Amino acid sequence: MSEYKKLTEQDLAEVAKIVPRERILWADEINEEYSHDELTATPSYPDLVVRATSAEEISGVLKYANKEHIAVTPRGAGTGLVGASVAVEHGIMIDTTLMNHFLELDEENLTLTLEPGVLLMEIYQYVEPKGLFYPPDPGEKTATIGGNISTNAGGMRAVKYGVTRDFVRGLEIVLADGTIMEVGGKVVKNSSGYDLKDMIIGSEGTLAFVTKAILKLLPLPQKAVSLLVPFPTLAQAIRTVPLIVKSKATPTAIEFMEREVIMDAENFLGQSFPDNQADAYLLLKFDGSNAEDIAKDYDAVAQLCLEQGAIDVLIADTDERADAIWKTRGSFLQAISGSTTMMDEVDVVVPRNKVNEFVEYVHALQDEMHVRIKSFGHAGDGNLHVYILRDDLDEEAWEKVLNDTMEKMYAKARTMDGKVSGEHGIGFAKKPYLKEDLDPAAVEIMRGIKKAFDPNNILNPRKVCFD
């Protein structure tokens, strides 16, 4: 039996004193979409959903939940892949999608202050016409910035620019007891005590509730060129990546893909990829202030690729050509999902020089486990996305092959000094693998941090490494 309170009509009446009843969903009013995220198969409904519009409302709800020992789950767009926004312990779900306002664009300090429900694609649309740039580029552009902060989302531009954490200057948060506080700020440097801001980023809603963020911006690059480089084998493609990284060129992105995933994307989109004859490809992007500067970089990298056995180098130097290629790359998850009945993902990250070894291991695992597996990923930072496909397996066979295959993959990653997740987080789906990966002393430290932030364990319970 759950240790958390099961909500009653009386709890509904109390929450309705904090948030207007028309922004509360109760019982049969709760849409099925609130029971899962993008990939989680097992549904779990909250008892009540609050569609919050302010930090003050969230503070009031958390204060009540903390007093009554009610589990609280934060929810953005629900595009996650590990169950972090699923109400495993039911209780109250706080939906932040109505908190979707831009609050301040400070062009002197190059910061953007906004609420957590703003979508990633809306940030780009807001700042780029003003000549400004928010570099993090996770694949799901309909994700909220609050969700990106919650998982420390990465994306394809991490090679040059870094991940979400590198572009968050400050946060407004609500603690489990309802306390509203600010961590970080507009300052560029800060050595003033423990960095609570960075502790919140990537904590998947288990430590505090993010209600406002101050993001760092950069001047918008004026020119970008993409290279699509076909190779005879994946091994030749991947072994070229460390040479590119060591060169004086600084690509914005270095992606790898295989022909079979490209074919899935072609079927999904109903359009042809510029080249689909090779077994493996590198997709690179370069950006900068002018064409002359980046031409030196991509010319040198193109030559290097050819020296390493590339079949050709296709240059996409117009928006139209580049968009067609990157649209295909952006559709891989949906394309793979559409080719099977169900799937689950492994989001491991390994040292860059181990990517090929891991992918070759995955290829061999298909034959060993008698299951289809598709993969692609960020060759420039060693983050792989590997999908295990159910196809026509029955429930019992699927659960066994999925668990056994994942166990083997995570064990292999550990032998390579890899980590469980590069950018999608742990949620509840990957908890067992994280515990195998972490030193027990590290787990205890994390649990101590959780206890300090959330003594009654009401914030997103059963997630990450917390029971």
Automatic annotation (TrEMBL):
Q: Which residues form the signal peptide?
A: none
User: Which residue intervals define the domain FAD-binding PCMH-type in the entry?
Assistant: 42-220
Please name the InterPro entries in this protein's record. Answer: FAD-bd_oxidored_4_C, FAD-bd_PCMH, FAD-bd_PCMH-like_sf, FAD-bd_PCMH_sub2, FAD-linked_Oxase-like_C, FAD-linked_OxidoTrans_Type4, Oxid_FAD_bind_N, Vanillyl_alc_oxidase_C-sub2
Please name the GO terms that the record assigns under molecular function.
FAD binding; oxidoreductase activity
Q: Which cofactor does it need?
A: FAD
Which keywords accompany this UniProt record?
Answer: FAD, Flavoprotein, Oxidoreductase
Q: Which Pfam families match?
A: FAD-oxidase_C, FAD_binding_4
Q: Protein name, please? A: FAD-binding oxidoreductase
Ranked from the top, the taxonomy reads: Bacteria, Bacillati, Bacillota, Negativicutes, Selenomonadales
